[in-house]
Write a structure and sequence with these properties.
This protein has seven helices and two strands. Helix 2 (25-45) packs parallel to helix 4 and helix 3 (49-72) runs antiparallel to helix 4 (78-101). By secondary structure, the protein is an all-alpha fold. A two-stranded antiparallel ribbon has the order 1-2.
């Protein structure tokens, strides 16, 4: 048992240690983070770049706080397991949508980020509802999210601007064309590459979990048939 606990990643809490409590310190932090999302969007659309960047960065950085708070106080809850990633998804979606509305992010990046989030949300919900299984978050997934958030913060601040590489003339590839752009775009590109990798891992693990449940159900039916 101790060996299994040592091998288990620190960010993955076993089901037996998850509580049904709602009012935990970690959940309060997550709820405050969620309330910051519309505040960020209003500030950005009103032209308050510095304030919008501050609110977004604060909401994104506290993702680490609520997770650590839940684990260190042994108050990982079922609500928190839903609320924490939901806040991350909201930050991600409204972050890219806001940047699209102010013209600092091309449509294809927005579409890719939103499609990826929809895939994970729908896939996770289907896996949980039909097979009572879930895929644990992997550390590279957290790194990918962090890279994207740092990149979005750089694009929100929109300073300092750096020269493009001038390797193409495509307007939808900021940083690679000759136009000056925010340094944050390079963090966004790095985050997207890692997102593609982690999404592939999540999909493959989801398929494995689904096949395992199918095999267990088939074995149970076979055993029940033999018992009759």
């Amino acid at each position: 048992m101790s060996d299994e606990k040592e091998k288990r990643p620190s960010w993955d809490t076993p089901e037996s240690e998850v509580t049904n409590r709602i009012f935990t310190a970690a959940n309060v932090v997550s709820f405050i983070r969620l309330c910051m999302v519309p505040v960020y969007l209003v500030l950005l659309l009103d032209g308050h770049d510095i304030l919008a960047t501050f609110i977004f960065a604060l909401a994104a950085s506290t993702d680490f706080i609520d997770g650590q708070l839940a684990r260190r106080t042994h108050t990982v809850s079922r609500l928190g397991r839903l609320l924490d990633p939901a806040v991350d998804r909201a930050l991600m979606v409204f972050g890219v949508v806001g940047l699209l509305l102010v013209g600092r992010l091309p449509v294809w990046i927005v579409a890719l980020v939103i499609a990826r989030d929809l895939l994970l949300i729908v896939g996770g919900a289907y896996l949980g509802a039909r097979y009572k299984a879930r895929v644990a978050v992997i550390f590279p997934g957290k790194v990918a999210t962090t890279l994207l958030f740092v990149g979005f913060a750089g694009l929100l601040l929109n300073w300092p601007l750096v020269a493009g590489l001038a390797v193409c003339d495509f307007a939808w590839l900021p940083g690679f064309n000759a136009e000056p752009c925010s340094w944050g775009i390079w963090f966004v590109y790095a985050g997207l590459i890692l997102c593609i990798y982690t999404t592939t891992v999540y999909v493959l693990r989801g398929i494995d979990a689904m096949n395992q449940v199918k095999a267990e159900r088939a074995a149970a039916k076979t055993q029940a048939a033999k018992a009759e």
